[in-house]
Amino acid sequence: MPSGGRRYDPDRRQRIIDAALRVVGERGIAGLTHRSAAAAADVPLGSTTYHFKTLDDLLVAALRQANEGFAQAVARSTALADPDADLAEALARLLGEFLAADRGRVELEYELYLAALRRPALRPVAAQWCEAVAAALTPRTDPMTARALVAAMDGIGLQVLLTDAPYDEAYAREILGRLLRPGQGGAGSFGPSGG
């Protein structure tokens, strides 16, 4: 062990982020403190404040990590990359898979995402998530329609979580399809320039 009692721990920052996600998942954002994250990560309190000066810094890191799931799934989707695939169907299926995979994880992601309403430091990260998903959709549609699709998927996801209603893939496919149809708010309905 090096002098001073400290040992090299390259994974400590990541363990703190993972612990913060567990704390928020168990107790909500109100239950997250530097102390609760340190206890959950089994690290000294000074480690959390060393890596994350403020609680908002820790929440930003947790939100960044939580956001990766759906945006990466959209970016990796072979169905979305296929120009002949039905985009509304592929997105509705992907959203259903996301909501069904781990409800607790999805609730955690939305809780962190919505925390940006009260914590301005989180807003850029929430916006980056929206932009990343929209960017992954722009090879298949125009940027405005891509943003509308993200907003619709967000709304559908929140409705499922908040009402405990089962996810209705056919409904999602229909709503997303309406955004994609020319003349009904989809690509091509904004004139010759597409916007």
* Computed CA radius of gyration, to the nearest angstrom: 20 Å
State the major sheet. Answer: none
> What's the count of strands?
0
Structural class: mainly alpha
Residue ranges: pLDDT <50 for 5 or more in a row?
Answer: 1-5, 183-195
Form type:
elongated
Q: Can you count the helices?
A: 10
* Mean of all residue-level pLDDT scores: 85
The percent range for strand residues is: under 5%
Give the topology string: H per helix, E per strand: HHHHHHHHHH
Name the helicity range.
55-70%
- Beginning-to-end CA distance, first to last residue: 62 Å
Keywords: DNA-binding
Pfam families: TetR_C_31 (PF17940), TetR_N (PF00440)
Protein name: TetR family transcriptional regulator
Describe this structure in words.
The chain has helices at 12-27, 34-41, 45-51, 55-76, 78-81, 87-101, 103-114, 123-137, 143-163, 169-180. The protein is mainly alpha-helical and 195 residues long. The radius of gyration is 20 Å and the shape is elongated.
Describe the secondary structure blueprint for this structure.
Layout: H1 12-27, H2 34-41, H3 45-51, H4 55-76, H5 78-81, H6 87-101, H7 103-114, H8 123-137, H9 143-163, H10 169-180
Helix pairs in contact: 1-2, 1-4, 2-3, 4-7, 4-8, 6-10, 8-9, 9-10
Comma- or semicolon-separated keywords:
195 residues, mainly alpha, 10 helices, disordered N terminus, disordered C terminus
